[in-house]
Design goal:
InterPro entries: DUF2631
Structural class: mainly alpha
Number of strands: 2
Strand order of the largest sheet: 1-2
Largest sheet: 2 strands, antiparallel
Radius of gyration: 28 Å
Number of domains: 2
Strand content: 5-15%
Order of helices and strands: EEHHH
Number of helices: 3
Protein name: DUF2631 domain-containing protein
Distance between the termini: 43 Å
Pfam family, one: DUF2631
Keywords: Membrane, Transmembrane, Transmembrane helix
Shape: rod-shaped
Low-confidence stretches: 1-6
Length: about 110
């Protein structure tokens, strides 16, 4: 069968007059029935599947910072927990600001 995929099923034969071989760049050679056309690759961007989320991650990040800082008010007595909360919230703020700057100065095709 040299170069033709085994996945075309038993109903399609290479030596059948109703089928033709099709060279598909970047893929194995395919078999197409008479009257049909080969499958052409469609770019995922044409369907809108590969877009970046614009606002949702930023909104979720800032809400997370506010939620972490709201834990400072509570009935705990030790301040060690406060250091962790403020430290992690500060880290999130740094990452969110870096992400905003990166998006603003990113190269766009």
């Amino acid at each position: 069968m040299g170069g033709v995929s085994e996945h075309h099923g038993p109903g399609v034969r290479q030596d059948n007059a109703l089928t033709t071989r099709v060279n598909q760049p970047g893929r194995e050679e395919g078999i197409v029935r008479a009257g049909d056309h080969p499958i052409e690759e469609e770019r995922p961007e044409d369907w809108g599947w590969h877009h970046r989320m614009r606002k949702a991650p930023q909104i979720a990040g800032w809400l997370s910072v506010l939620a972490m800082l709201s834990y400072l008010w509570g009935n705990h007595e030790a301040r060690f927990e406060d250091l962790w909360l403020v430290g992690i919230a500060a880290g999130l703020v740094v990452l969110l600001l870096w992400d905003l700057r990166r998006k603003r100065t990113a190269w766009r095709p």
